[in-house]
Predict the structure of MFS transporter.
Amino acid sequence: MSAVTPRRRLVGGFVGTFVEWYDFLVYGLSAPILAVYFFPGSSPVAALLGTFAVYAVSFLVRPLGGLVFGAMGDRRGRIRVLAVTVLLMGASTMVIGLLPTYQSIGIGAPALLLLCRIAQGFSAGGETSGGLSYILESAPTDRRARWIGVAVAMSWLPSVLASLLILGLRGGLGNAAYLDWAWRVPFLLGGLFALIGLWLRSTLDDPEEYVEATREQRAAHPVRQALRSDRRAIVTVTLLVAVQAVGAYLLLSYFYTYLTTVAQLSVTAALLTNAAAIVVMALLMLPFGWIADRFGRKPVMFAGVGWLLLGVWPAFALAGTGGIVGALTGQLVLAVGVALFASGGFVTMVELFSTAVRVTGHSIGYNVGYAVFGGTAPLVAAALISATGSSSAPACYVMAIAVVGLIVVFRTPETRGARLRDAGTESSVASSGELSPL
């Protein structure tokens, strides 16, 4: 019997997740300044699009990282993969803070920035699937959605820390100093945070669910087995992720840029309103997670896609007015929809797979979905506004994704109460009270 208690696993798991995603998300908040230093030879719009293109490329490598770390997580253990991912993420983040600019080495600067983002994307490919699998397998059966909700909230809150840190640097050192050199500080701190995350994860061990499952059956070739036996679950996860990725990453990585460049809001107001919306989104995961545990995953997912479908146009319309009240209200509307969907969606996506191939199966579907929809969301949003001249144009993209989401949720099985060991099998579906076919 392990000496590590379930609650300690939860704390160790979500603190490590917080560190990992601080490193990944700080890039989005630094996009305007990175555009100046790494893409200076073009118009401001083209430079920003170039910065978001590099952002998108990091998502394209996530499926490869998911394959490598997914197989490692299922064959070698959850903790091992989580230690490697946080170390790789921290190192690549710190290097971004040390990179020479375009003015110093020319085209080599954006090339090195791209390599760092590729390393971050490769690491992120294993982090979510490994971390969520670890939390799920450590959680009591009747609290899985709430525990996963905590982990997801802790992957969003680093954006708030990064926002407040940037605001503090601008206010404490002055805007000139921030633009000159202090923009590097958030990236350098990411390396230090990663060492803390690595230490925290080194004190944990694999959950009993995983240990017992591997005694019964260990997948010799997790990728092959997942692609053969869980293809439908992988496709389902990819499409569920589309809703989550577009909504969440617009709020986490694009809205700050949108508010400062499109709505012409001040940097301080943009950072504070964005941070407030993200905090609300994270806090909502707790009550919404309780509802998902009590009444099922599908009701809250349906509520989430319905909310986004009806609310995203007013959200962008309000945020684009240029006022602080409109900016905050618009982001809060988006935050509610994302939190609703996430409270049921994230736990469903890991519950669809059996323990033997959970990290691998989830990582394939999840990372393909994020590569296609999440990494491109800021780029698509910026391109739509540039092409149409409408500040609300990105809402059309979110609404189209939400329509697809409604269909996918309808065809997704209810996983509340499913036995993790044989998730996705007929016995597991029957035990969970499944009502609709996959």
Observations:
- Residues 6-431 form a domain with the Growth Hormone; Chain: A; fold (CATH 1.20.1250.20).
- The chain has one domain: 6-431.
- Residues 173 and 182 are 8 Å apart (CA to CA).
- The radius of gyration is 21 Å.
